[in-house]
Amino acid sequence: MAIAPLQNGRSAVALHERAEANLRFIRETMERATLFTAVPGWGMVAVGLTACAAAALAAAQPTLWRWLLVWASEAALALAIGSAAMWRKARRQDHSLASAAARRFFFAFVPPLAVGGLLSVVLVNHGAYEVLPGAWLLLYGTGVLAGGAFSVRIVPMLGLAFLLLGGVTLFLPLAWANWAMALGFGAFHLAFGFVIARSYGG
Given this model, what pLDDT does residue 94 score? Predict the structure, then answer.
């Protein structure tokens, strides 16, 4: 007579475990489907402003080494501004930068930037300064386009714009390429950042 309650207890436990598994699956599926929306529009506007200033300052440098130092400093400043702005926007939206959507974005966005840093060292060692602007624009565009696949629609459009500009810049003399970077890292960030800020909450 004690067998039936035991079987009912086991059935209840099995049903509970299946329900938990189903909820976990639904939760993970929804998390995978979530877009990374903490791309900071106003942060991009700030980066665009500093990039325009950097282009003007770099154009006035008397040596290639000082020109490179200006742009390397701008890259470090842009990284700091972008990271702080992204953290603030994610916090305001109550989104975690460790979420699945954020991890997919970063895993797609960061590697091209790391490649750009490594390639820059090699190009400088070979004295190929004129290749740097096009390479920077192309690799940054690659990262934005790849990461943008997991973000709002306008982000991959920004990446594509950088890719097109970078392809042209590869064939420009360094003096013109410097202003191409002002167009990309400056004007593109200003324009797209303003749209993101107005349309996607900052």
Answer: 82
Domain span at residue 21?
1-33
Domains held by the chain: number: 2
Q: What is the pTM of this model?
A: 0.81
Phi, psi of 97 (to 5 degrees): -75, 0
Residue 201 pLDDT: 82
Q: Report the distance separating Cα 159 and Cα 2, nearest Å.
A: 68
**How far, in Å, are 72, 159, 197 from residue 55 at the CA level?**
12, 20, 24
Dihedral (CA of 184, 146, 109, 68) sign: negative
- Determine the Cα–Cα distance for residues 69 and 194; give it in Å rounded to an integer: 28
| The predicted structure's pLDDT at residue 29 | 52
Looking at the structure, tell me whether residues 45 and 138 fall in a common domain.
Answer: yes
End-to-end distance of the chain based on CA atoms, in angstroms?
66
Q: Are residues 152 and 80 in the same domain?
A: yes
* 65 plus 109 within the same structural domain: yes
